[in-house]
Amino acid sequence: MARNETLFRLSAVEARRLIGGKEISPVELLEACLARIEQVNPAVNAITATCFKRARSEAKAAEKAVLKGEPLGLLHGLPTGIKDLQDTEGLRTTYGSPIFARHVPAEDEAMVATMRARGAILVGKTNVPEWGAGANTRNPVYGATGNPFDPRLNCGGSSGGSAVALATDMLPVCSGSDTGGSLRIPAAYCGVVGFRPSPGLVPASRRAHGWTPISVIGPMGRSVADTCLVMAAQVSDDSRDPFAGPVDPESFARPMPVDLGGLRVAVSEDLGFCPVDKDIRAAFRRKVAAFKGLFRQCVTGTPDFGEADRVFDVVRAVSYLARFQKWYAEDPDKLGPNVRANYEQAAAMSLADFAWAHSEQTAIYRRVQAFFKDFDLLIAPTVPVTPFPWSQLYATHINGKPLANYYHWLSLTYGITLTGHPAISIPAGLDHKAMPFGLQIVGPHAGDRLVLGAAHAMECAFAGVSALRRPVADPDKLLATRGKVDFTTPITERGQKGRA
């Protein structure tokens, strides 16, 4: 029985192996995770709407399938959390917005349906910022989600609830999505892994602007191996996404073997254009000094990102203009300040701005891709500042200098978003404030397997280096905060000006 009570600590890969070998039951695993959620979630507020009764029924069915020797899916019997921006049939999906506070979708979106078909057992939804806007997981429906290393601090976003659920061992599998860094940033802040895949590998059946894939769906995990398993369970060829195509799920199920000693790596503190805190720069230099010997070549270098800030302003704003025009026209106060910031920014733009942005985005992509003729990987910090209190909506200054808007502090990740290159954030020890430090690893066009394989090899090497190994939150310290952090403290800014 004692063993059953700690099953929640199993990695996704190990749990799936034990289920397939009839060494543990999906029912036992689910009950261990539900008990863990009951114990830990009040301290972090990561999991929102739940479907425990349905999950128990599905776990019993999964157990019967194992005992009957039936074919088992990649995630067979694994308890799963789905980001609250992603539609789940029969389970409340709010997008963090009061407009959809009681919304229950009639069907799963494509990625969710694929994960379920491959064995995932949906347990609940994971918290997000309102409409996924900004890298601070807090909204007027469910409140804020706290960082597992200090629940008073920002856990990142917009896949913050998923990152926290993984980091605190509440669930072995969680989904995410990424526009400006929404998989990578919470992974970095919580000490887990977040992978932004190439567009189309994980089809998006609900993306309104199907031909502008700055937003992608992707996996998270406690390790790169877990992340690969989830990735394999998400990929498919779904014609509703114009970027989707034939793909072999099994090719992602395990990290591709990569010899780090044969790789040429460029490292950059700021990608040549991003504001980065001086202490984060110093921490990154220490990390580089600790891992540079792993590679054939490891030198300072960065592509030319041109006017990436302005391009992202335009490309991001267009999607907000399309999505929120109706609600803004009815009543701007229905939308939070981050959403209004983007909408109002978009409303002031012209078709000429849009045409220029897409041309410059193409030029940036081509320069970055040309960079990979000389290098196999590009490595940078994932985030430019240490986690700040979630009561502060976003970072307003870096090194004493004001930032342009509420998302300018995300430029390390949104610069990569613009190019569409695959990128992953992996844990690399702690920063100067003893908070998790994330490394962003970027690969060439369509180099998803290379990025995952190299990240796995680095993770294995880092495990033996105290300054680089994955940090784990102190469970006793975390549980001691239960009831001491009010996640519903004033976070509704209705009526405030949208533009920062």
What is the fold's blueprint, element by element?
Elements: H1 2-5, H2 12-20, H3 26-44, E1 47-50, H4 52-67, E2 79-83, H5 110-117, E3 121-126, E4 138-139, E5 143-144, E6 146-147, E7 150-154, H6 160-167, E8 173-178, H7 184-190, E9 193-196, E10 216-221, H8 224-234, E11 264-267, H9 278-291, E12 297-300, H10 308-330, H11 337-347, H12 351-371, E13 377-381, E14 397-398, E15 401-402, H13 411-419, E16 423-430, E17 436-442, H14 448-462, H15 475-479
Parallel strand pairs: 2-3, 2-8, 11-12, 11-13
Antiparallel strand pairs: 1-3, 4-5, 6-7, 8-10, 9-10, 9-16, 13-17, 14-15, 16-17
Helix pairs in contact: 3-4, 6-7, 10-11, 10-12, 10-13
CATH architecture assignment = Alpha-Beta Complex
Strand count, sense and closure of the main sheet? 11 strands, mixed
Kindly name the structural category: alpha+beta
- What count of structural domains? 1
Beta percentage is 5-15%
Question: How is this structure best described in words?
Answer:
The protein has 500 residues and is α+β, with helices and mostly antiparallel strands. The chain has one domain (2-479): Amidase signature (AS) enzymes, CATH 3.90.1300.10. It contains 15 helices and 17 strands. The strands form four sheets. The chain has an eleven-stranded mixed sheet with strand order 1-3-2-8-10-9-16-17-13-11-12, sandwiched between helices. α5 links the parallel β2 and β3. α10 (308-330) packs across α12. The longest helix has 23 residues, at 308-330. The chain starts with a helix and ends in a 21-residue tail after the last helix.
